[in-house]
Structure formats: C-alpha cells, structure tokens
What does this fold into?
Amino acid sequence: MLVTIEQNASGSGKPESVFISWLLWQPRGADLPTEAVKELRKLAPYRDRDPDIVRLRSLFERLAGRSGRPH
It folds into this structure.
C-alpha cells in the first residue's frame, strides 16, 4: 500500500467530503459551474480563516473554472 502525506494539509479530509456530498446532492442537469459560483459567494466571508475552507474554496473555484487545471 502506498501512502502519501501532503505537507500543508489540515489533516481532516473534510473539504473533499463536503465537496463530494455537495456534488451528489445537485439535481440532474444542474449547471455545476454556476452552482459552484453560488457556493463561493457563501464562503466569501470566511476567506483564509481556516485551511479547510481554503481547500473547499479551491475545489469550488476549479469547478467554476476560476483557477488553473487540477493536479
């Protein structure tokens, strides 16, 4: 088994779980980039306060097309 550890990770794994849950709850045919922008607006007041929120914002930004290619 191969295990990788990210140097700057918060260690919770929660942002990815929240993002996946959000994706699964979107209705069929939803415009995901548009819905991601709505989530970014909700997260805006919490910018840079917590590493998990920074990571979650990054995931929504990628989906919204606001950042570079995912790794």
